[in-house]
Amino acid sequence: MMPTKSYPIPLKRLEHGNFTSLVDPGEPGYEQYKSLSESARWSITPDEGDILAMLAKDKRVCEIGTGLGISTVYLASSANHVATIDVDPWVQENIFPWLLSIENMGCLIRAYGGRALVDTYFDLFFIDGLHVFEAVEADLEWCLDHSNGPADILLHDLCWIEVAFAARRFTTKHPEYSIRVLDTPNKVGLITHRRSGIDGIFDMAVPR
């Protein structure tokens, strides 16, 4: 269940296969969305949101790729602090103001228009930004530079081949890290350091 009932814009829940997703009717390509138009924004599924909330509990979290803000709200429902980053002007104009106005979340939310603006360190990262190899690779390396110790990184959409290749390149370059894949429709991956203690929590989050 979504941690909040209010949305900045009317969102429609669409069914596709065995899962649902949220889209904005004002998005370009919305009318063609059922034919999987790439111009409309996808969001995380409710099961994925529950996993984000479980892993973010009491942590400082950085999200790269705000999108519709749905994942941001799930993270903020249990985290101590969430910094969300998105370079898309549409997101900055339509989503950031809503996220920053949410009350009673018990979490400090900060919104940034680019990675270079963030000058703090985090315990957990969630990447769901540009799904291009070079962008994902840069996001992963940035997370290492802004982590409180060994980084724990959640990576959405490993079903995209360029995202999966970037994750594999990262773990090859940094052999102290490994990746586990949760079999959700969008394939969520968890990249952890060998000294990370998050694996046990992740096991609890896997649907049986």
Largest sheet: 7 strands, mixed
The neighbouring-strand order within the major sheet is: 5-4-3-6-7-9-8
Cα Rg: 16 Å
Low-confidence region ranges: 1-39, 204-208
N→C terminal distance: 19 Å
Order of helices and strands: EEHEHEHHEEHEHEEH
Share of helix, binned = 25-40%
CATH class: Alpha Beta
User: What's the count of strands?
Assistant: 9
The total tally of domains equals 1
The CATH architecture designation is: 3-Layer(aba) Sandwich
Number of helices: 7
What value does the average pLDDT take?
Answer: 76
Rough outline: globular
Task: Name the quaternary structure.
Answer: single chain
- What is the fourth-level CATH superfamily? Vaccinia Virus protein VP39
The proportion of strand residues reads 25-35%
- Based on secondary structure, the structural category is alpha/beta
CATH fold-type name = Rossmann fold
How does this structure look, described?
With 208 residues, the protein is α/β, with parallel strands linked by helices. It has one domain: Rossmann fold, CATH 3.40.50.150. 30% of the residues lie in helices and 25% in strands. The protein has helices at 46-56, 70-76, 89-94, 96-101, 133-145, 161-173, 199-205; strands spanning 12-16, 19-23, 60-64, 81-85, 108-112, 122-127, 147-155, 177-182, 188-193. The longest helix has 13 residues, at 133-145. The radius of gyration is 16 Å and the shape is globular. It starts with 11 loop residues before the first strand and ends with a helix.
